[in-house]
Model the fold of this input.
Amino acid sequence: MFPKLEGQIAPRMKFRGKEVLAWSLNNYLGLANHPEVREADAQAAKDWGLGYPMGARMMSGNTVFHEQLEKELAEFVNKEAAQLLNYGYQGICSIIDAIVDRKDVIVYDAESHASIVDGVRLHMGKRFVFPHNNIENLEKQLERAKRITAETGGGILVITEGVFGMSGNMGLLKEIVELKPKYNFRLLVDDAHGFGTMGETGAGAGEAQGVQDDIDLYFSTFAKSMASIGAFVAGKKEIIDFLFYNVRSQIYAKSVPMPLVIGALKRLQLLRDKPELRENLWTIVNALQKGFRDNDFNIGSTNSPVTPVVLNGTVGEAANLTMDLRENYSIFCSVVIYPVVPKGSIILRIIPTAVHSLDDVELTITAFNAIKKKLDEGYYKEQHLVEFSE
Done:
């Protein structure tokens, strides 16, 4: 039912038995197969096994390594404290649930990740959505929220993303922060795609826009730049202390296994101490996005590594085009179609990494020129699937 990429995580993997150039992995810094990471993961599994520690953090699942990881994460993103989370999706849902009650109002970006939307659905109070990165409309929603909280005595929580995973553009954090004095809200930023890739040190979109100190709760996952499993949230100590005792998905769940904690410490060390990983990533990002723009492809307003190539076509054309790209041009990337995007639109999402090469970029631009020509000529309108070689 779902496609299978097989082999070691790398720019070139196997799909249906043939080698393809993979642009669909969020392995931004190439850490998934970094030799130091593989060694740390293997040694930690040998030393500790996957069972330790047993139990939830507050009962019997805490260790000095869990606390060390939280301390180093907080320092890296310039916050007072951090909480380690088992999973990103589950974690942010529970955080939203924990920090608001029925007297509070949530205002969130319309293109927020599904995990944020699901977290907002748990809220028993009012919630308002603003069109993506529309600061004028955000202010209108804040006016509505302020009128409500004046009566309820509650607060306002604004939620957005540091980097939006589909469009690749950053949330307008600087402009949002400028509204804080007037509307007295707290800001939660999901920076899953920004952590490790954006900013001078890789501390994320807040650092890149010079407003990291104004983000009340900074959230990110380990599933992107850290190439692992888990997540964290960071902020003022009093808020994080509250979350430790109120985030239900952590209170009632087994602690993160030790190999994942030890592995995260090694990944964070490399992310922090090897800026050349991020520099390599941006070399590929800049070459790829320039190549697309120079060849008249629409990649939207991305200002991050996420590179969406927007084409016009039906769902059927998207299926044929994707099959052709994978089977005959050996390019594997993610395809996004209706209802995620409007009818008549196709997005081929490219995720560059530090371990791709400039030759990979050139090959990809050539292939995309070929499939775009076919699309424009109506080649993919045929009702049968395109032919491919075995």
In short: DSSP finds 14 helices and 14 strands in the chain. The two ends are 19 Å apart (CA to CA).
